[in-house]
Design goal:
- The protein has twelve helices and twelve strands.
- The protein has about 325 residues and is an alpha/beta fold.
- Strands 3-2-1-4-5-6-10 form a seven-stranded parallel β-sheet, with helices on both faces. A three-stranded mixed β-sheet has the order 7-9-11.
- The radius of gyration is 19 Å and the shape is globular.
- About 40% of the residues are buried.
Length: about 325
């Protein structure tokens, strides 16, 4: 039996669709408040269970007969109010998954993040051997993913059969108005300013397909792979989004002081409205970071050819041009 955690999420639901298209039965976890995607709700090959990954006993009940696990569930946030729950979900949840995989002898593909990788040195592309810098200004999200990945490595030392994937920013059809889809929303509304950093982008279908390829290749174990299609400056990416939406591209570069003012202003507005800030300090710092990633290891190992980001953006534009 195949277990997919975070089955209703953007990546998890895409992965499940590929698995059931192969005729494979899937056991998928979801939160009680999550809605099952329409593309999966009628499938007899998917069994849904309400289980918080931070709840060991709920997961333990689900693991009977499980031989393969795709661990996609995680909480992503740059909001201070979410820090405690994010750290608990991402770290404690992975701890439970690793221990149960060890107990049941299940093979694991763990979804980490480029956020758990170190920074580039001397302008080199970041890869699987980049070192985490404890002294850097790491976001709480990055820390949670790094600590989660360390738990998987601990399991590997103890005999866990596992592969780790580190996707860059995941985009693609189905992201909707959340996650990477917010980029399309901002450009569509007339975004004028772009942050100075760089970003790596990968299509959700590439991530899902590579996870399946790596799961099936049992000769690969105890390895991590960066999954990244292309690197862009934020300006370049926003220009491409503007092009497919037939909207003006942002032309004003955000200076550090502008980002500093912006996140502070968003914080004050949030205090007044009692809503979450539209921009946080960690979010502003992440947007300004200059980071670029190498996909050489995974392409050399699998021969996989990534979908061009331009194709991904064209496909996504259909959701936002209606």
């Amino acid at each position: 039996m195949i277990l997919v955690t975070g089955g209703t999420g953007f990546l998890g639901s895409t992965l499940i669709k590929f698995l059931i298209d192969e005729g494979l039965a899937v056991l998928a976890t979801k939160r009680p408040t999550s809605s099952i995607p329409e593309s999966l709700i009628a499938s007899s090959l998917v069994q849904w269970i309400d289980a918080d990954i931070a709840d060991y006993f709920a997961l333990a009940d689900a693991f009977t007969g499980v031989t393969h696990v795709y661990h996609c569930a995680a909480k992503i946030s740059y909001q201070k109010s979410d820090w405690a729950s994010m750290l608990h979900t991402n770290i404690e949840g992975t701890h439970h998954i690793v221990n149960l995989c060890l107990e049941h002898g299940a093979r694991l593909v763990h979804v980490s993040s480029i956020a758990s990788l170190g920074e580039s040195k001397n302008g080199e592309l970041i890869g699987e051997n980049s070192k985490w810098d404890e002294g850097a200004k790491n976001s709480r999200y990055a820390i949670s993913k790094y600590e989660s990945e360390m738990i998987v490595w601990r399991g590997i030392v103890e005999g866990l059969d596992a592969v780790i994937v580190n996707p860059s920013v995941i985009m693609g059809i189905g992201t909707g108005r959340k996650s990477a889809g917010t980029i399309f929303n901002m450009v569509k509304k007339g975004l004028k300013i772009y942050p100075p950093g760089t970003v790596g982008v990968v299509d959700v279908t590439d991530v899902a397909k590579l996870m399946i390829i790596l799961m099936k290749d049992t000769s690969i174990s105890g390895e991590r792979y960066v999954l990244n299609s292309q690197n862009f400056t934020n300006k370049e990416l926003l220009e491409r989004v503007a092009h497919v939406l037939n909207k003006p591209a942002p032309t004003i570069a955000a200076k550090p002081f502008m980002l500093s003012i912006a996140w502070r202003a968003a914080h004050l507005i949030a205090l007044v409205t009692r809503k979450k800030a539209a921009l946080t300090r960690e979010g502003a710092e992440a947007s300004a970071a200059s980071l670029a990633y190498s996909n050489k290891k995974v392409t050399d190992s699998t021969g996989y050819i990534f979908k061009p980001v331009e194709v991904t953006l064209q496909e996504m534009s259909k959701e936002f041009n209606t």
